[in-house]
Write a structure and sequence with these properties.
CATH architecture of the largest domain: 3-Layer(aba) Sandwich
CATH class of the largest domain: Alpha Beta
Structural class: alpha/beta
Order of helices and strands: HHHHEHHEHEHEEHEHEHEHEEHEE
Number of domains: 3
Largest sheet: 6 strands, parallel
Radius of gyration: 24 Å
Length: about 350
């Protein structure tokens, strides 16, 4: 079997790394090629030697040995502008990138914005350019999971997929997080509690709405469709949903928004309508992003571990690519309600 050679620009060879680490050349090759058949102590010794000597593996040679590209596709099925306007995506990508860089894997970002883009993305990813794919922000009828399954491409989904069941995924406890938000509002004396829900074709939107309804039912508060308005996880979508709610239910005294951006949009509409927050209307968001600290008052929000979610997605995919864990996994991460001024106290006349 051929062994991967190093980059000779700095004169460092595989043999020199082996000598520094006190292991064989074959062992260094296994570490460089990402083989799991190396003990943690030996891996650390080799990685330390690689770092000290400035050894740079030859990607082309390694690909010939491993028959892998050394690249992982990350597909975000949202408009490109969302990558910069929604703090969720940079944090998720940071977690993914951190996990991939440790294994010397390259992240390839794709953001299909039309059916034609989706088809090109599917063709690119199934043509051997990547070793696997991470799918983010899937909507209900997205064809990519089925295409990858048919092509035998390992993939992991970020968020519970609504349609495909044959997929590993990493998500947060969306129902539980929403329940904790609404239970907090009920405990503070609010009774006419509205929600700005997420899209009905996304697992996060469906599950957070379900958590809202469950918390009301457990408290003996009947659900009311006139208190439910749907947004698209954007600030503009949250504002539009809040405007609809005020027209149909001006008596609302609390709002649970399924994202911080939608909560910020709802707060702007409430302020423009002369509603005091939290005295007249309490508001709770979801994400605990940087947005929660920029609103006035600061936003109570459900914290979800976004970077951890990205790292776990990458970890599951790497295990699937390497064949060390062929079992489909469902990983659900815990959430936490972070209380701030936007939901403080009871309603004041």
């Amino acid at each position: 079997m051929a062994l991967v050679t190093g980059n000779r620009r700095n004169g460092t060879t595989l043999e020199e790394v082996a000598s520094r680490a006190g292991v064989s050349r074959a062992t260094v090759s296994r570490v460089v090629n990402g083989s799991p058949k190396v003990s943690p102590d030996v891996r650390r010794a080799v990685e330390a030697a690689v770092s000290e000597l400035g050894y740079i593996p030859n990607r082309a040679a390694r690909s010939l040995v491993t028959r892998r590209s050394g690249s992982i596709g990350v597909v975000i099925t949202e408009p490109t502008g969302r990558l910069f306007s929604d703090p969720f995506f940079p944090r998720l990508l940071r977690g993914i990138s951190t996990a991939l860089s440790v294994r010397d894997l390259q992240l390839v970002l794709l953001m299909p914005a039309s059916p034609a883009d989706t088809e090109r993305t599917a063709q690119y990813l199934t043509a051997g350019h990547v070793d696997g794919a991470l799918l983010v922000s899937l909507h209900g009828d997205d064809p990519l999971p089925d295409r990858f399954a048919q092509a035998g491409i390992p993939f992991v989904v970020g968020g519970r997929p609504l349609r495909t069941q044959a997929a590993s995924f990493v998500d947060v406890d969306n129902r539980g997080g929403a329940r904790s938000a609404v239970e907090h509002l009920i405990a503070s004396g609010r009774r006419t509690i509205a929600t700005v829900a997420g899209p009905a074709d996304m697992g996060a939107g469906v599950d957070r709405l379900a958590g809202y309804r469950e918390a009301l039912a457990d408290a003996g508060v009947p659900t009311d469709p006139s208190l439910e308005s749907t947004g698209d996880f954007t600030q503009e979508g949250g504002a539009a949903a809040m405007e609809r709610l005020l027209k149909t239910r001006p008596d609302v005294d609390a709002v649970f928004a399924a994202s911080d951006l939608m909560a910020a949009g709802a707060m702007a509409v409430l302020e423009a309508a002369g509603r005091r927050i939290p005295q007249d209307v309490a508001v709770v968001g979801y994400d605990d992003s940087a947005v929660a600290s920029t609103t006035r008052p600061k936003l109570t929000s459900v914290r979800q571990p976004i970077e951890e979610m990205g790292r776990e997605m990458a970890r599951l995919l790497i295990a699937a690519v390497e064949g060390t864990d062929p079992i489909q996994r469902r990983v659900i991460l815990a959430t936490e309600l972070i209380r701030r001024a936007s939901s403080a106290g009871r309603r004041v006349p």
